[in-house]
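Subject: Protein entry, chain in single-letter code together with its fold tokens

Category: Structural biology, sequence-to-fold work with a learned token vocabulary.

Notation: Tokens come from a learned vocabulary of local backbone shapes, not from coordinates.

Start of record: The labelled sequence and token lines come straight after this line.
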Amino acid sequence: QVQLVESGGDSVQPGNSLTLSCVISGFSVNYYAIGWFRQAPGKEREGVSCFKSEDSDTRYVDSVKGRFTISSDSAKNTVYLHMNSLTPDDTAVYSCAAKVPFFREYGPCSLSSKDYDNWGRGTQVTISS
């Protein structure tokens, strides 16, 4: 079965950077999509970024464009979320999710949580001075 394990969450001051990792296991196909989502207290879950393995397509929510970058290391079965210029508004539990399989003809990867079948438990990111 598909398993995802996040790590890298921390408490840092505004303006700093963090890199989150999502280690993926339990499937052998090379065609998948990974999404990073976040949920702040009292708010709905929000899609932050996604990655499509077959063509390395990526998407970002407007609020993180230019600050966050999603990347993949296939040798390590890991997808990263590099976060720069962090602000208190980025405080949330960050989770990664997988859609397997996800082929090129499916179109762009999705920032909607309903399109993902498998979820990690999340990692806490706190931005505070």
